[in-house]
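Q: Start with the shorter request: fold the first protein.
A: Done. Sequence, then structure:
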Amino acid sequence: MTARSVKSSVQRDRLNFEGKDLERFVNDEEKYLTFLVIGDPQVLNDKSKKIVDRVANEQAMFCFILGDLVEDGDSLELWNRFKELSAPLFSNFQVHAVPGNHDYQSDRTAENFILSTNSPNTYYSFEHGKCCFVFLDTILEAAIPNKEQGAFKVGSVQYVWLEETLEQAKGENKEIFVFAHHPIFMPEKIYPSTSPDIRADVSAFPPNLGNLLPLLTRYEITMYFAGHIHAYEHCVYKDIHFITTGATSLEPLKIRSMANPYRVRAAERYHYCKVSVAPSLILFSAVDEDGLVFDSFTI
């Protein structure tokens, strides 16, 4: 992949791309692929139902869920509530999910997650057209007391698998989209929420980039999506877009007052994300619970 030209805009009610870009996208309508992303739908309430209903009315092929599907991975009652909440998504889209820290069971397994989401594993990948979709398990390698923070260890089975997967996808010139529960970029104030294996500590000198980010930059992925933080944050690092989208059910975190040097946009609202991939253009939009687009860009 080559360096990317990015057009960024912040809209409240619609996408506003340049005429040639929009015309090219419309002309390629039959060829483009659209997917939707939500994070942390762990509570069945009016907000989560509203977001899911709005997402279910979108035209897309895939819906990806970024973990914390329930509050307690041991509770079959809560997994049944998740199935109730997500039923419109499974009816309308091919749904894929990654586990969050709340989804793992007390015996350190994710059996209920796998059964409830029809996942082949807690980490895997698949390709569709020009896209490679990679799903990570950032809980798998965490010590029991640090389950909330997650982990990603150099040399682990998952690490080796990810390196091989990214190398193959780059060799095939795929657009690589990576999905995980834990974000990489975040305000320093909330660093304790995520392991230094995963998050980039830009307050250190030199910066501590963790174990995951160097792999993603080496293979020039297109976008990285995460939940965990109940807010919206859009960061850019080395031409890669990092999206934190974890505000589906719980009250959004007051994140805008917290400094983050890589931030392009932050919002404290319930939302979901929409991505459309055309042959020569990628369109991204973040959409709030009332259907208003509050962040958008093209790649």
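Q: Next, the second protein, separately.
A: Sequence, then structure:
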Amino acid sequence: MGLHIATWAALVALVLPLGAARADTLVAGGDHRFEDHSFETHARERLDAIDLSGANLTSTNLSGSSLVDAAFVSALLVNAVLDGADLTRADLTAAVMTGVQAVDTVFRGAVLDAADLRRSDLEGADFPGASLIWVDLSGSNLDFTDFGGADLSGATVNGVTTWGANFSGAVLDGASFSGSDVLKTRFNGASLLGADLSDLKNAAITDFTGAYYDSATLLDPEIDTSRMIYLPEPGGMVLLSAGICGLVACGRARGVSLRG
């Protein structure tokens, strides 16, 4: 997932003018695309609507900063520190964020499609309503993280810990949770169509009440499906609908014949 670091560096080398100077100052609403701000400290700064797409933010400290509506498209944020930052509605599409430290960080309504967040610490982070389609969260700490109502379709969530995390109402269609520890995680009302939850730890004490699954969903044998909702194949739904319509039609015809 995401751009390979070497590939990203080559692209930046082509875009930046030869001998370009480092610009240490970041400005809210400013255009800082493809700039090099690696290893800088910009903690507790107001940087709303800033554009850092394609920028090098390796090991940059942005903890506690306001980055509402900011753009980080394809940015390099390897080992960056985002603890307590506010990235509400930020665009982090295809951002390389391996090893990011984002404890208690706000990502409400943010876009992280195809972002690489492997081996990151996201404990207590908020992702309600965020889009994380095809995101890679492998090996990350997701304890007490809130993904309520988020879209994680096709996400890779393998080998993570999600103790006390919330996926209520989230879309997890086609997502993979192989080898993950889901102790007391909430999946209430989540969509798990075609998801892989076949190899989980502590699945027996995880809440799947009202979660949707289908014949393509792979479930750990310890998951209690009695309170889950099974959705039949589309073909089966068509046949079921046709049968119901047939019964209604027969009832109407019978009523007409009796009146006649």
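Q: Describe the second briefly.
A: The longest helix spans residues 234-259. The chain is about 15% helix and 5% strand.
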